[in-house]
């Protein structure tokens, strides 16, 4: 036997077991990607290792002619290098990683298709199906780069499993030319079924990713939200109103309103909002709630008054009880930039407070109802910060309005602390993206747009167009999971930007008794931070009624079945009746 033939035969006997071992490793990596609770960087490392192994396997493809041999080895080397880059540089940014993964998968699929077309095989159709699945997964990665490290890991992991099984089965059933018998029926069908499942999953991921990340079409603000050429110069003046037909509780009626207000620097502006009142109401003044709503997004289409459920935010069940059963009216500000033109002052407490107080003023001009100058303020999350700021600035900004009580549910009271502890989590990244997109406009001197971490800008651009309600909220959070790093570098948080975040902490004094409710299972507004804020206010001599709720998270705290709901109703009725407040600073002291 010639020496060259002997060497080739020896290498062939070596290549088979190596490809089988790579296949076993591929299956293991795929299972790890699909099932293990990996961090973003761990996902990148596992994906990179898998692609590097796929490159080695591609370089060891059995070939017949020189062209295929050279192309297989070149592609295998490229795939190995790309996989190694991903494995050693997991923080490189989702767009780059998406490109590397997508290009690798497409290249592998094309190479396998060329191999099958040129040389055939007893399962040509099955091999082409596997190649198509690889190409579809690659196209999804390129079209939806934010999927690559989390949502798309399911597809990549599954591809690794089938790719690995293909290598293992090829080693088990491989045959030499002209001597071995064709593969058995079980082997052929198992490979065909596996290939078909891979293609079905690839198409499913492509369709599902578009549904999950695309958001939903929301109504854009219409002519109602455009103010006339001339508006009153005074803040709190009602410009116009119209009936609100959707999302209003049975036994109540609602209206959209447009009114004048000011920005945090005193510049005149226009905001929209809603008013709701009992349908059957007696003559005389109605007691009034002023609502500061929580995060709904930062785009104009995210205004609560545009939503199909305008009163659902925050303690919606308690609000319905107050209106329908106890005969109260309620007014909610959308805030500047939601519904109306301008940049939404997201989590800028003074601006939120001015918008809330001016909505209360506008409600007093609304001819359909009669309300006095007294009100109780509620707010959840962003609105919790807004309600506290309302209590802090009311005496100076709107001295004619008397606050009877201030209720804040899971308030974003310590904004800097929240930014610090949530900077690597999906919801924290989503909130940071909202801050980045709005504060870049409101504080141009910070130059935030140029100081984001690598790979964050694309996620910020996408998240800022999504509302934080309904399916859009899922899309916004999923996009947040795909930003590989925290939005703001630590150096930015430690600089002037961090000082502005700290300045958003409401410290009092407050114009009325304060209730702070906090779920102890809240993953966004951390209970320990909230307790620290309460203790600091108590140490300042302020009186806070702090109520923690075991087992409740950020949303279940204000759900209809939450123990807070009936307590909030009673607390509000007590404030309007002039009952003594119930502070408990002694109970929360360190």
TrEMBL record:
**Which Pfam families does the UniProt record give?**
DUF308, LIP
Does this entry carry the keyword Transport? no
Q: By its UniProt entry, which Gene3D superfamilies does this protein fall under?
A: alpha/beta hydrolase
Q: Which UniProt keywords apply?
A: Membrane, Transmembrane, Transmembrane helix
Bilayer-crossing residues are 20-38, 44-63, 70-90, 96-114, 126-145, 151-173, 193-213
Q: What is this protein called?
A: Lipase family protein
**What taxonomic lineage is listed for the species of origin?**
Bacteria, Bacillati, Actinomycetota, Actinomycetes, Micrococcales
